[in-house]
Write a structure and sequence with these properties.
Blueprint: E1 2-7, E2 13-14, E3 20-21, H1 33-43, E4 48-54, E5 59-64
Antiparallel strand pairs: 1-4, 2-3, 4-5
Length: 72
């Protein structure tokens, strides 16, 4: 299992370079949800999903996150 971070507004996934990709298979694979949440905060992604990918089993679980308020 790997975890990806998806921006709900664009539909894109955070990739290994800190950029964004439209393809989940090219997304950065986080080892924990805490790591993904830290990157979400760092990138300021207001509306996001955590996408738990189970490649061997052939399915994904998408978990919507609470909206991140803009920084003051």
């Amino acid at each position: 299992m790997t975890i990806a971070l998806q921006d709900c507004r664009t539909g894109c996934y955070l990739d290994e370079t800190g950029g964004w990709t439209g393809y989940v298979q090219d997304a950065r694979g986080f080892q924990s949800s805490a790591e993904a949440l830290n990157e979400r905060q760092r990138h300021g992604v207001a509306e996001a999903l955590l996408v738990f990918r189970f490649e061997r089993e052939g399915y994904r679980i998408q978990v919507p996150l609470e909206r991140l308020e803009a920084r003051a």
